[in-house]
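From the shared-data thread, chain only:
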Amino acid sequence: MIIYLVILLFSFGSVNAFFTPAASSERLSTSLAVSPRDDGNMNNPMHRREMIQKTLTFGALLTASPAIARSTKSRTTGYDVQHTESEWSQMLSPQQNFILRQGGTESPYSSILEGEDRTGLFVCAGCGTALFNSKEKFHSGTGWPSFAAPIMSKSNPGVSNVEMEDVSTFQFQLAGAEVRCHTCGGHLGDVFADGFLFPGTPAFATGKRYCIDGGSLIFVPNDQKGGDLEFVRGDLPPSKATKPVFQG
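Structure, as tokens:
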């Protein structure tokens, strides 16, 4: 554990930077990924953990740990819902396709779902699988929708609807792991073992922070009124004053 802290302190430059609230707002132990100053859009698809890999090169040399790399596992093979890349590109918006199928990362605070506080379910924008319950959502200050835990499968309660990349304990503690929709393999974001940094939130109890790209999600609020079913697409920007209503 001590070597983990030493590496983290090297990453942030000083002990003071590590323990200040300002550092937390910059994604702290995992916030090095895409900072609010970065572009992070489709013209600059720097992945959160790729930035961490560059930042922690010195730490990796110290510990002789393998370099942190993005998962090379297929996003199609082995998943229940499968489509060709051409089909996905027609089914999804450019931003949804960029995130779910290409593993891209949206800019912080660019999704309307970061500020969504109503009760309801967050489902996969690719296949509709229920991924997160609103009761597990909290504001991490990172700019991405954050959750403490995913929804478990109804057919198999021991399996999560959110698949976590198979990485070593060391890599997970240090730099997190990619998470995908368990049904269609769509990239959702990353999960980090820094829930302890958020007291008063559900993440403090689970010890985990699921840092999710809002564009990979669709929010279905519980308080449905009238005959139309409301869906809030996460690829919409927060500047949209009126949330779209779709026929259900």
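Strands lie at 120-124, 130-133, 137-138, 146-147, 162-164, 177-181, 187-192, 209-212, 217-221, 232-233.
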